[in-house]
């Protein structure tokens, strides 16, 4: 297993191999996207290509991570200059913890939770019963949602914004799969990254049909892209900080052993659509959250920090919360072109 970061000094970019406590830059590579394209053309394994090119400048990772270097962290995946070539989507109701949160969110009387079964719990139960099909078979389809393109993808340490039109904003600590589509339409998994999927849970709670709209918010990945990692069982922790102190934290677990859908089943149901297999496109797919601070009554405020950390995924993903001022709320006017 190897881990990569993308960094920039404002004038140029680098891809670097994580060799704690340092970063070793790859020679003649400015983006993970171009590196992966080289591998697709040559047929060489990505990990082998990385190790072959890891002969460049060595940088102290601590300084880059702390913002004390001329180099700063970028998102671990992008298509430089073409954010529309990256599609960000995800699957919900894949973890027992999140299913319980969603059930409580959509049952009006919490005392009836044991008797009532919402559509959310039905979807989860279908996953339990049919989300791990035998090899070569197709399992039940999961809940699926669209988030946006790379214009909403924020780098580590960049703020995640609760826009003026939103009702709320809350972290969703997840692992995301990162993919590229080959020239023949074949999807290739590049690797995995820690992610904060960030959604408007209060808007969703109003009516579960608001789920689609609640997901149309910015998000973050990284800082590291894990290549060749295991997705069986991954332990982690999610934390909310306010005023320099921990406001809320939770131990979390993800990976196939903790999910009601297998990785292969989630990937099949995302890539079965021809529109998701366009040559040269990058796909980022969030695999669902284990626990949410919103489910325990936490309301994020401007200046709070969200931290997501998974064992084996390198350094923690940290992003501050920015709440857009209410006076910024105004209608978008469409101009006729006739």
UniProtKB/TrEMBL annotation:
<dbReference type="InterPro" id="IPR009645">
    <property type="entry name" value="GguC"/>
</dbReference>
<dbReference type="Pfam" id="PF01557">
    <property type="entry name" value="FAA_hydrolase"/>
</dbReference>
<protein>
    <submittedName>
        <fullName>GguC family protein</fullName>
    </submittedName>
</protein>
<dbReference type="InterPro" id="IPR011234">
    <property type="entry name" value="Fumarylacetoacetase-like_C"/>
</dbReference>
<dbReference type="GO" id="GO:0003824">
    <property type="term" value="F:catalytic activity"/>
</dbReference>
<feature type="domain" description="Fumarylacetoacetase-like C-terminal">
    <location>
        <begin position="141"/>
        <end position="321"/>
    </location>
</feature>
<dbReference type="InterPro" id="IPR036663">
    <property type="entry name" value="Fumarylacetoacetase_C_sf"/>
</dbReference>
């Amino acid at each position: 297993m190897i881990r990569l970061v993308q960094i920039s000094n404002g004038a140029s970019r680098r891809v670097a191999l994580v060799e704690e406590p340092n970063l070793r830059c790859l020679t003649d590579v400015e983006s993970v996207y171009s590196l992966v394209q080289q591998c697709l053309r040559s047929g060489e394994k990505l990990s082998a290509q990385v190790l072959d090119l890891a002969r460049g400048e060595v940088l102290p990772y601590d300084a880059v991570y702390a913002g004390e270097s001329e180099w700063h962290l970028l998102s671990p995946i992008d298509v430089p200059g073409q954010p529309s070539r990256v599609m960000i989507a995800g699957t919900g109701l894949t973890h027992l913890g999140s299913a319980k949160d969603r059930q409580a969110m959509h049952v009006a009387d919490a005392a009836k939770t044991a008797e009532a079964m919402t559509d959310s719990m039905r979807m989860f139960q279908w996953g339990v019963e049919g989300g791990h099909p035998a090899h070569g078979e197709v399992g039940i389809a999961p809940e699926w949602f669209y988030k946006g393109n790379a214009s909403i993808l924020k780098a580590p340490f960049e703020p995640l914004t609760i826009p003026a039109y939103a009702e709320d904003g809350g972290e969703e600590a997840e692992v995301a799969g990162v993919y590229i589509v080959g020239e023949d339409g074949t999807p290739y998994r590049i690797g995995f990254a820690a992610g904060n999927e960030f959604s408007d849970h209060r808007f969703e709670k109003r009516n579960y049909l608001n789920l689609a709209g609640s997901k149309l918010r910015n998000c973050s990945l990284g800082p590291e892209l894990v290549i060749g990692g295991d997705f069986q069982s991954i332990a982690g922790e999610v934390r909310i900080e306010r005023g320099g102190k921990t406001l809320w934290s939770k131990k979390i677990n993800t990976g196939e052993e903790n999910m009601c859908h297998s990785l292969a089943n989630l990937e099949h149901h995302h890539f079965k659509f021809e529109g998701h297999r366009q040559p040269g496109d990058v796909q980022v797919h969030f695999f669902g959250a284990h626990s949410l601070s919103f489910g325990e009554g936490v309301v994020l405020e401007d200046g709070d920090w969200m931290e997501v950390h998974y064992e084996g995924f390198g350094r923690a993903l940290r992003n501050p919360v920015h709440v857009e001022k209410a006076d910024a709320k105004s209608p978008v006017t469409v101009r006729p072109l006739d």
